[in-house]
Write a structure and sequence with these properties.
The chain has helices at residues 9-20, 28-31, 54-69, 74-81, 104-116, 131-136, 171-174, 219-224, 227-230, 268-285, 299-306; strands spanning 36-42, 47-48, 51-52, 88-92, 124-128, 142-144, 147-151, 160-162, 165-167, 179-183, 185-189, 193-195, 233-244, 256-257, 261-265, 317-323. The chain has one domain (24-323): Rossmann fold. The protein has eleven helices and 16 strands.
């Protein structure tokens, strides 16, 4: 929760982590009891002439985050997840090129909302795998809107191993931030089945190509289980203005569509389960068999649930669908 006592959030997070190995304050999904909430906000007006309308997108984001947190308005909702004394990162996904990467408008909306709760511009950083991925998201490597935009390989942390994962994680994630906003997109994946919140951090490591065996399972959950990845996650906001259901992770124009939605969650497993359903539903619309039928069942999502990273059962997930226009 937002700071209300003398101890700052950063101090509190460090104190609880040392005392009990606790999760960061903002990782509500991993600490909560009961159901994990996933909000889907829809508005057909968010794309016009192939472009994303930022004003409409901002309204969708505000509605989704408010519904996710249960707060009275967007300012209180963002303030519940982030506070002014923190260093916050934003992780978009630019792997698919300009046609199927996180919309610039979504990144900008998030930057403005974080500034709105008092996070200093100099304490914000945006990162992705390399400069080309940042450019694909409409960002200028170095600085955009006064915010640092850096490639993951600007500085690697020490080699890390956790289960099947072995590699280096960008120090942007491990050392330079207290929490982050995960900004994936809706895409199928030729090996993992789905690329969403869990797989997003293949853009944060030195050797993603070494972790694609067996449909990326259990590589994805083993990577996400690392505390710097798991515990710093505060909010997942998925760009569903454009999406692809076949040919991912690159853009296949034949199977790319304007889904015109945003997903908000704090539980990456519950979130990715909804992406799986959305992709399979669109595959059916396009006359394609479901992912499992073509040997691309997103089994890493199920393994992630086994690792305790979130909830996978329908009875433990609450989906709020907001029709905004």
């Amino acid at each position: 929760m937002r700071r209300s006592h003398r101890m700052s959030r950063r101090e509190f997070v460090k104190t609880t982590a040392v005392a009990a190995g606790a999760l960061a304050v903002g990782t509500t999904a991993l600490a909560q009891e009961g159901k994990s909430r996933v909000v889907i906000a829809r508005n057909e007006a968010v794309t016009k002439g192939g472009e994303v309308v930022e004003e409409v997108l901002g309204q969708m984001v505000d509605a989704a985050v408010t519904a996710l947190t249960g707060e009275a308005d967007a300012a209180k909702a963002w303030g519940k997840l982030f506070s002014s004394d923190e260093r916050i990162g934003l992780k978009p996904n630019g792997l698919g090129g300009p046609m199927i990467s996180t919309a610039t408008a979504l990144i900008h909306v998030c930057v403005e909302r974080l500034r709105g709760v008092g996070v200093k511009t100099e304490n914000l950083v945006i990162w992705d795998q390399d400069p080309a991925k940042l450019v694909a998201c409409g960002l200028e490597p170095g600085e955009t809107w006064g915010v640092r935009c850096v490639p993951a390989n600007a500085e690697w942390d020490a080699p890390t191993q956790n289960g099947s994962f072995a590699g280096q994680i960008t120090s942007v994630l491990t050392k330079q931030i207290d929490g982050y906003v995960n900004l994936p997109i809706i895409k199928d994946h030729n090996l993992a089945g789905v690329t969403g919140a869990l797989k997003a951090h293949y853009g944060s490591i030195s050797n993603p190509g070494a972790h694609h065996g067996n449909g990326c399972d259990p590589y994805i959950p083993d990577l996400y289980s690392i505390p710097a990845v798991r515990d710093k996650s505060r909010l997942i906001l998925t760009d569903g203005t454009r999406a692809t259901c076949e040919g991912g992770p690159q853009c296949n124009p034949l199977f790319t569509w304007n889904a015109n939605l945003i997903l908000a969650a704090t539980d990456p497993v519950a979130h990715d389960m909804q992406l799986w359903k959305i992709i399979d539903a669109q595959r059916e619309t396009n006359g394609l068999p479901p992912l499992e039928a073509v040997g691309r069942k997103p089994k890493s999502i199920l393994t992630a649930a086994e690792r305790g990273l979130g909830k996978v059962e329908e009875s433990r997930i609450e989906v709020k669908d907001l029709a905004l226009g």
